[in-house]
């Protein structure tokens, strides 16, 4: 009886876990500093703000799924006059479609390719939470100047295992989000900021990711932000200064 109940629970969680990973909000992004672009034959929705700096930023948000919730991170780059492109996720912010790991990663590469065709200078990637997996995936497949990660994870399925008491990393049909698998293909310097009070993605995940990256020969700058939780990390004092100093030191 117990085994049957557990198997039924596991089957239900496989079917339902995308709703947990992608609880995207509906709020549309309407910042007048950005223009909307739909690019490639994949119909990837982008929000684009032009800047005067040589460096362009490709930004991947967390699983709020709507850029309207990530203005702190976008503003850092706007204030520094960088061109910033935020990828909008299908299923959030009024963007049609259904998200999945495979779709979001393919869309992220298409977003980079579009930006590279438009922008003559270098490109850096910046990801928050769920979006750190996209930033790492793009950096493993394309040439980037730098990788900036806010509250990253090693593998998202480890967090699923902790929350569900299921071996999510070994279960078929589960979207794994294994950022560690892309590390051997990385070469750009990395900045990681992680909240010491983060309960959604505890800081030890970011510390372990940094350690694996350093063992792979990457240059990693890690900042543990005291008092910062998962959601208020970008609003903490010094957040923008750490990003600007990291990019200035490239």
From TrEMBL:
One of its GO terms (molecular function) is hydrolase activity. Pfam families: DLH. Residues 101-230 form the Dienelactone hydrolase domain. This is Dienelactone hydrolase domain-containing protein. It comes from Yoonia maricola. The lineage of its organism: Bacteria, Pseudomonadati, Pseudomonadota, Alphaproteobacteria, Rhodobacterales.
């Amino acid at each position: 009886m117990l085994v049957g109940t557990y198997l039924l629970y596991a089957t239900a969680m496989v079917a339902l876990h995308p709703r947990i990973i992608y609880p995207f909000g509906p709020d549309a992004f309407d910042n007048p500093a950005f223009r909307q672009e739909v690019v490639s034959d994949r119909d990837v929705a982008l929000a684009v703000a032009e800047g005067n700096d040589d460096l362009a930023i490709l930004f991947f948000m967390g699983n709020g799924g709507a850029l309207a919730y990530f203005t702190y991170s976008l503003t850092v780059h706007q204030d520094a006059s960088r061109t910033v492109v935020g990828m909008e996720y299908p299923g959030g912010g009024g963007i049609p479609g259904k998200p999945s790991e495979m779709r979001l990663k393919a869309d992220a590469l298409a977003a980079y390719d579009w930006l590279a065709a438009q922008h003559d200078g270098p490109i850096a990637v910046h990801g928050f939470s769920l979006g750190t997996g996209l930033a790492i995936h793009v950096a493993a497949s394309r040439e980037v100047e730098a990788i900036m990660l806010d509250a990253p994870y090693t593998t998202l399925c480890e967090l699923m295992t902790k929350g569900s008491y299921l071996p999510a990393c070994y279960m078929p049909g589960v979207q794994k989000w294994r950022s560690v698998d892309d590390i051997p293909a990385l070469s750009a310097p990395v900045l990681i900021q992680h909240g010491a009070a983060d309960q959604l993605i505890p800081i030890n995940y970011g510390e372990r990711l940094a350690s694996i990256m350093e063992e792979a020969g990457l240059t990693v700058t890690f900042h543990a932000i005291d008092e910062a939780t998962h959601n208020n990390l970008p609003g903490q004092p010094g957040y923008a200064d750490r990003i600007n100093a990291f990019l200035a030191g490239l």
